[in-house]
Amino acid sequence: MNEKVKEKLAESLTSDETGIIPFLPYLLQDFWELGSSPEEMLLTFQNHIPMNRDTKVLDLACGKGAVSVRLAKELNIHFKGVDILPEFIDYAKCKGQEYGVSDLCKFEVQDVNISVETEKNYDCVIFGAVGSILGSFKETISKLMSTVKNEGFLLIDDAYVTDQAANGQLQFEKPYPTYDEWCECFHELGLHMIDCKSCTDPVSDTAEKEMSWITSRANELMIHYPEHKAMFERYVISQRSEYNDLEENLIGAAWLLQKN
Question: H-helix or E-strand containing 202?
């Protein structure tokens, strides 16, 4: 894994230092869902995407496979999940066996920057709450388009700011586009917006529970690796900052787009 990939990976999992990467599986061991809600994704599929026994879905940066496994179980369609962390892929494979969908779910360790160049002709690609690992938001959408067939679908879970001034209030990560800037990008690339669900629900309850998991695991690591204590403390702070941004400055959104 080269340094640029490490930086993007760390950023996608809410850190600004690559030294945290070997510890991410431990820090996130209490999570199965890492980003997108499988329930929301399921509703989008059921309401808008035509499916049959040959439908193929690509789940890029799939994490521990929660979306792929749970949707395969409900919809009886084929998923391929790709993530760069072997521990996450091993967990996803175990969950696939547990849910009885190993024949429907294939998981592979790979950098998604390679995947968007090699994976083609899918009916749908999912890119859920991953951030800028493929580049700017325009570069990301353009690269994702190459993986789906004509009339295929892109399901993008990300966020937007109400206006560019709001970017000055963000505590963590990159500047975000506005809703209109996202829509302009879709139009320029020839994508038709089928659906958009914006999330305005408070995240505070979920945040407190998940922060308790992360803080507990970070404290355990500080005992075993005291030389990295400051790094683990910074990771906890960055996680809190991201939750604060989602609560105060960002609006989460899931877009379903169709390639013309």
Answer: none
The position carrying tokens 């695991």 is: 217
Mean pLDDT within 32-37: 87
Closest CA to 235 of 10, 1, 9, 6: 10
| pTM value > 0.85 | yes
Q: Are 143 and 135 in contact (CB under 8 A)?
A: yes
The two three-digit tokens of residue 189, written as one number: 């690339």
How far is residue 256's CA from residue 243's CA, in Å, rounded to a whole number? 24
Contact 152, 259 (CB under 8 A): yes
Q: Are 168 and 226 contacting, i.e. CB atoms less than 8 angstroms apart?
A: no
Which two structure tokens, joined as six digits, stand for 104?
């429907």
Q: Two tokens at 244?
A: 């604060």
Query: Which residues have C-beta within 8 Å of that of residue 78, sequence separation ≥ 6?
Result: 54, 55, 56, 57, 72, 104, 105, 106
Q: Which amino acid is at 95?
A: K
Q: Which two tokens stand for residue 195?
A: 């659906």
Q: Pairing state of beta strands 105-109 and 78-83?
A: parallel
* 133-154 per-position pLDDT tens digit: 898 889 999 999 999 999 999 9
